[in-house]
């Protein structure tokens, strides 16, 4: 069906596509983080994926690379969906920002930064979006202490 999308991605980035899978119209490609932005641009410009539906992450502690960034793309013209994943190590939790390609990536990336601590290089305003500025740590990391006490916020008049 749409497995040609995965073939096109593998053909364009032969050394960077780590694996692919397709099951019942659910196409997924795992790419190296160094080519994520370039692969996303290829999906947008060459394959017609005009909508970044979601961008999130998962923590697989104790596995290394610890994190996996997950992006869901949609083509409104062709009614295709495709998922790009990329492994992100804990020692260098940085990925290129997709905001130059999709403005909507701004809030998704801020949420991933806030919850997991993954930084997005080239993001126009990377700061917390769900937690307050003085919040310590990243609450969706698997090693975040459940009973951690946070600093109090003082109200200014």
| Low-pLDDT residue intervals, each spanning 5 or more residues | none
- For CATH, the homologous superfamily is named as NADH:ubiquinone oxidoreductase Nqo5 subunit
Query: How many domain regions?
Result: 1
Helical fraction equals 10-25%
Quaternary: single chain
Strand order of the largest sheet: 1-2-5-4-3
Indicate the mean pLDDT: 93
What does it look like?
By secondary structure, the protein is of the alpha/beta class. The protein has a single domain (3-121), classed as NADH:ubiquinone oxidoreductase Nqo5 subunit (Beta Polymerase, domain 2). The protein has three helices and seven strands, in the order αββαββββαβ. The radius of gyration is 17 Å and the shape is elongated. It starts with a helix and ends in a 36-residue tail after the last strand. The model has no long low-confidence stretch (mean pLDDT 93).
Give the tags:
157 residues; alpha/beta; Beta Polymerase, domain 2; five-stranded mixed β-sheet; two-stranded parallel sheet; 7 strands; 20% helix
Quick summary:
This protein is α/β, with parallel strands linked by helices.
């Amino acid at each position: 069906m749409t497995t040609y999308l995965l073939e096109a991605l593998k053909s364009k980035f032969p050394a960077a596509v780590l694996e692919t899978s397709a099951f019942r119209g659910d196409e997924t490609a795992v790419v190296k983080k160094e080519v994520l932005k370039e692969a996303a641009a290829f999906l947008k410009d060459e394959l017609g994926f005009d909508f970044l539906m979601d961008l999130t992450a998962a923590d697989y502690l104790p596995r290394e690379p610890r994190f996996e960034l997950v992006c869901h793309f949609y083509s409104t013209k062709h009614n295709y969906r495709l998922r790009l994943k990329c492994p992100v190590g804990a020692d260098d939790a940085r990925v290129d920002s997709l905001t130059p390609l999709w403005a909507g990536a701004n809030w998704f990336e801020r949420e991933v930064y806030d919850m997991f601590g993954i930084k997005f290089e080239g993001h126009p305003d990377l700061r917390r979006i769900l937690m307050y500025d003085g919040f310590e740590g990243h609450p969706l990391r698997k090693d975040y202490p459940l009973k951690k006490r946070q600093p109090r916020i003082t109200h200014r008049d």
